[in-house]
Amino acid sequence: MARTKMNITLNRKPSSATVRPVALANLGAQLHQADLEAARVQGFEAGVMQANQKAAKAMDAAIDRLEKSREEALDTLSTSAVELAVEIARQIVRVEIQAENYDLERIVRGALSQSGLGRGKAVIHVCPQDYQRLEEVTFRNGTQVEIDSTLQPGDVHVQAAQGLLVREVSECMAAVREQLLEDLA
Questions:
Q1: Distance (Å, whole) CA 168 – CA 151
Q2: What share of the chain is helix, strand, coil (3-state, %, to 5)?
Q3: CB 163 within 8 Å of CB 123
Q4: CATH number of the domain residue 113 falls in
Q5: Which of 33, 110, 166, 180 is the most exposed place for a label (fewest CB within 10 A)?
Q6: pLDDT digits over 161-181, tens only?
Q7: Is residue 111 situated within a structural domain?
Q8: Whether pTM exceeds 0.70
């Protein structure tokens, strides 16, 4: 193949130029290598961006799971704290009742007051141990105290014409528990 000379006309004088003789075959290989390197860099950057996006999505999902777990743990912890507190209170009340460290007269008078019967007749039902503690106590006229062997110490049932008022320690503890759990919700 014959070489052809080509004349190039420049509009201005080059400020810096280097003429390097390069064979056309080598120039194609160099350009191809440069294109491959540019494609490699572009592909690497796209891969890094894609990996970062996947990592960000995975991080967001992990944060969501962690927040959900935290909320569930907080709910469980709060409920467990109420259950523990009520059980501690129940044990303290049980010990105090066994030691007869409760104001039975005050409990009975409170039950009579809550019954809403005013000065009407009432029958107070208590367990045998509590009956002995109330033998010396004077209540209003028409009020009598009777033994009910099915009741536990500290429990009081007031029977009147209007109905029956039940005041039991276990029911009071259950009401406290339910109120505390309701307050958490």
A1: 8
A2: 60, 10, 30
A3: no
A4: 3.30.2320.30
A5: 33
A6: 778 888 899 999 999 999 999
A7: yes
A8: no
